[in-house]
Structures are given as C-alpha cells and as structure tokens.
Design brief:
- The chain is α/β, with parallel strands linked by helices and about 160 residues long.
- The chain has a single domain, classed as SPOUT methyltransferase, trefoil knot domain (Alpha/beta knot), CATH 3.40.1280.10.
- It has 4 helices and 7 strands; from the N terminus they run βαβαββββαβα.
- Helix 2 links the parallel strand 2 and strand 3.
- The longest helix is centred in the C-terminal third of the chain and has 17 residues.
- It is globular.
- GO terms for molecular function: RNA binding; RNA methyltransferase activity.
- Keywords: Methyltransferase, Transferase.
- Pfam families: SpoU_methylase.
C-alpha cells in the first residue's frame, strides 16, 4: 500500500514546508494539493515554497506534487464521533491523508470528501490539539508501519 498526503486549507508557510518534508521522509510518492493558491509548488520557480532538498527529490523522480481532484480513498485526520483511533490501524488500501486547518480543523466541505476519519489519542484535560505537522507525522508513521506489516509491540 502507498500513502499519499493531501495539502489543503493550511495557512502557514512553515507548516506547508514541514508537511512536504514529513511526507517525503515516509516515502509518499505524491503530494496532492487542493487550493493553496498562495503557495508556489513549482520546484523550478525562483519563488517556490518547496524546500531545496525536496526540489532534488522531485527532480530525481522520487516525489511528485500534483494539483488534483479526488483520486484515492481519503482519510481525514479529525476529532469526530465517526473517527477511528489511529492506534487500531484503520487502513485498508492506498490512501490519501487529509489534514485540517491549524486552528479550525477540517471544513464541512473537506469532511464531505473523506471516506473515513482517524483521530490521534491524546491525554490530559486540556483541548485536544496537535500541530498539523506533528499530527501528519504521526499518521504517516503509523500508516508506513502498517503498510510494511510491522507488528506494533505494546508495553504491559
């Protein structure tokens, strides 16, 4: 199975760059961009938002950034009553992972495009909130190990 990442509705340039690097580190062959008109994803452009090391990654053919409409199964990362806990590895096939906005989470339109949702267990009494880059890293890490068939050992 292959993991893809969808970048949409992310407002901070630093988070967009972090998401690109995290996806590359887990071997995502494509990153799909929906909207995000204020960002330049052309690696050959002088004003590109693609980090230098990823420009080489793209030039060598190991990764592609694609503006697109729906292609694969969409899994949204969202705190929602229908979301499955990430720890249960609720994956079935190749999937595109969609993250929500840093402050407001996923829009209703984004949620309507998703085939399912995962949530990340959090502990403590405060607001359940992780940085979007951290959350993407956790989900892609779990997906990567699930795809390889790695057993997750639990501490008792």
């Amino acid at each position: 199975p292959t993991a893809y990442l969808i970048i949409t509705n992310i407002s901070k340039s630093r988070n967009v760059k972090n998401l690109l690097q995290i996806a590359a580190s887990f071997g995502a062959p494509k990153i799909f961009v929906v909207g995000q008109k204020s960002f330049d994803f052309d690696p050959s452009s002088e004003t590109t938002d693609v980090p230098l090391l990823l420009q080489r990654h793209i030039a060598s053919g190991r990764m592609e950034i694609v503006r697109f409409d729906k292609l694969k199964e969409f899994i949204g990362v969202e705190i929602d009553s229908s979301a499955k806990n990430l720890e249960t590895e609720p994956f079935f096939t190749s999937a595109a992972i969609m993250m929500g906005n840093e402050g407001s989470g996923m829009s209703s339109k984004q949620m309507s495009l998703c085939d399912g949702f995962v949530r990340i267990s959090q502990f403590g009494g405060g607001t359940a909130s992780l940085n979007v880059s951290v959350a993407a890293g956790l989900v892609l890490h779990r997906y990567f190990h699930w795809g390889r068939g790695d057993a997750v050992k639990r501490c008792s």
